[in-house]
Design a protein that fits this description.
The complex is a heterodimer of chains A (146) and B (66).
Chain A: H1 9-14, H2 20-48, H3 57-83, H4 86-115, H5 123-127, H6 129-144
Chain B: E1 2-3, H1 5-11, H2 16-23, H3 27-34, H4 42-52, H5 56-59, E2 60-61
Antiparallel strand pairs in B: 1-2
Helix pairs in contact in B: 2-3
The chains are: A mainly alpha (146), B mainly alpha (66).
């Protein structure tokens, strides 16, 4: 093994990818996340640009599709947690706590700022704070126990 | 909590990765336990005791609170 090899950003950030089973579950989750992203942006594009008939079941089906994929996303995440070892579960828990706890306070804080005159942000931009803080929590947790 | 995991691992001439495989945890978990940053759960501590064929209290000792 080349000891002088510079560590990648991923290994710097996540320190250790975990057991083989955990990594496999993580890879499956990434694929599901990608499918969800495609469905979410695709549905949003089709609806917002008027590519769908105004009446009938098709707009409903297209609008509901990302939520259906999101169920698989949640199942995949809980499967990944089940495959994680105890330290990685603790890291995930702390990241979730930062993501949701911190996200809630950032969003509610910004809504107050908006009321005071700050520029109005779109809901999806505000919600992006949650996964962003979750990712920060993952990196902090991994670095702490490296 | 103090532990003798690093010593026991060295006695068996195992790497952290090898011990991690034996215990079905990540190398990061072994490193965090060895450096005292993380205390393992009771099931994992029992697994270690079985693996090294030693009583748990010979591997882990409590640091008295001053």
């Amino acid at each position: 093994m080349n000891e002088s090899k510079r560590p990648s950003y991923w290994s710097w950030a996540l320190s250790d990818p975990g057991t083989e089973r955990f990594q496999r579950a993580g890879r499956r989750l990434l694929v599901t996340m990608f499918v969800w992203g495609v469905c979410q942006s695709g549905s949003s594009y089709l609806i917002q640009h008027g590519f769908l008939p105004a009446a009938g079941p098709i707009p409903w089906v297209v609008a509901a599709l990302p939520s259906v994929v999101a169920v698989f996303l949640l199942v995949g995440y809980s499967r990944m947690l089940r495959e994680a070892d105890e330290l990685h579960r603790l890291i995930q828990l702390r990241a979730l706590a930062l993501g949701f706890g911190g996200g809630y306070f950032v969003i509610s804080g910004y809504l107050l700022l908006e009321a005071a005159g700050a520029p109005t942000l779109r809901v999806d931009v505000l919600i992006a704070v949650l996964p962003l803080l979750y990712a920060v929590g993952l990196v902090l947790g991994s670095r702490r126990y490296r | 909590m103090k532990n003798r995991l690093k010593v026991l691992r060295a006695e068996n001439d195992w790497t952290q990765a090898r011990l991690a495989r034996e215990l079905d945890v990540s190398r990061q978990t072994i490193n965090a336990i060895e450096t005292g940053k993380y205390d393992p759960s009771l099931p994992l501590a029992f697994k270690m005791a079985r693996l090294f064929d030693q009583p748990i209290e010979d591997i882990f000792t409590e640091i008295p609170v001053s």
